[in-house]
């Protein structure tokens, strides 16, 4: 049996952050990772000379972001790309109407003003909502307050559906009314031209990470924690468990004794989403210059409504779109050709029959990933924002759950993962430790 001061389960950003801080404070730490790589949901494909972030891409606001500070300290190149948070107007966006014709500037301005009017009313609607209200319920209240005709209301309703899908990978009726409360963007958004995964590489430097070590059992008691893998059993005084919500809910990982309250209740109200990326590399550009994104309104845009222009990033005409919520669930078993044809049908509606087939396609399958079961967690009906922190409540003084879903302020992000790892490390140590130690030299 292997013994150490601490075990960290999962080598994603939460686990690597916790392990790096514990090691910096002098503890012996082993990191157990199920996959054959580190990074978890931060992973970069580098095949065919292209850099493609299959998990996280964006820092959704660099102001005050610990990830931005770490990236700067690690010398990671970034590029501004401020439309990742599904804003209607943070940067130039080409909006197309239900007829497939691009909106005039004044029509686009009026549409965006309508979205802001509903958002302003939404804050009060959410505050006054019932405990089990959905995001649909509160958006309908805010829409009804506007006194618009059906068509005008429908355009904004669609936008709100798409926002729930793109931000949380959930159908609007399945997302809690408070499900987007903490979804804030402070400052510019940036992406990583050389790949987000180098954040994980830097954090992991010098750590004892055991790849291909899926943990099947975590036993906790006053004496500490025992983690079972197919190779060896690991014992430590304390453990940080950073596996995604989907793994915590699956029978593949047994926690013994079972999670107590409030962890168990919080976990039952969170759910992994359905959210997949589709990168389309084209032989030539057919869309307008100078726009960050293309969006379409109307029933044809039910699944494919938004495309992000990554050309500047990749130096090759590239559009990124998302299968999110129902679109991700219903295309889950489709092959790439079927998905591409379905997306191209919409692009050809907007840009004409000459739109060429892509020369390369990269499509993710997070729903089928046994070490994630989805892209990230969302709040189901009845959940409150407190569920995130409650999930991280220390268990028996020895077991600490961390990860994106345990952080209330902007959950479902890389900063949330990093900060949750920092909090878990401080709890294991029993004292504060500066988060900056993550990116300062030991
Ligand atoms: C498609 C997609 C797009 C995203 N876009 C963004 C974005 O633009 N910006 C942003 O900030 N965030 C984004 N996110 C979310 C972000 O990637 C995650 O919030 C963050 O990376 C989660 O880190 P984590 O350490 O909590 O979990 P993970 O990265 O999932 O780490 C957990 C680790 O535990 C391992 N593990 C699982 N089961 C076991 C087991 N039984 N034993 C041992 N190890 C196990 C996993 O393999 C994994 O390495 C996106 C995610 C996805 C999937």
Describe this structure in words.
It comes from Microbacterium galbinum. This protein is of the alpha/beta class and 442 residues long. The chain folds into two domains: 2-42 and 196-270 and 381-438, FAD/NAD(P)-binding domain; 44-85 and 186-194 and 273-368, Polyamine Oxidase, Chain A, domain 2. Helix content is 31%, strand content 19%. It contains 13 helices and 20 strands. It has helices at 13-24, 66-73, 105-127, 135-144, 150-168, 197-204, 245-248, 263-268, 311-314, 326-330, 336-351, 386-391, 414-429; strands at residues 2-9, 29-32, 44-45, 52-53, 79-80, 93-96, 190-191, 209-210, 217-221, 224-228, 233-241, 254-256, 270-272, 275-281, 293-296, 306-309, 318-324, 360-363, 377-379, 399-401. Strands 1, 2, 8, 9, 10, 11, 12 and 20 form an eight-stranded mixed beta sheet that branches. It has a six-stranded mixed beta sheet with strand order 6-15-16-17-14-18. It starts with a strand and ends in a 13-residue tail after the last helix. The mean pLDDT is 97. Bound molecules: flavin-adenine dinucleotide. Flavin-adenine dinucleotide is lined by residues 9-15, 32-35, 40-42, 55-58, 60, 84, 214-215, 242-244, 247, 253, 275, 277, 364, 366, 371-372, 375-376, 403-404, 412-414, 417.
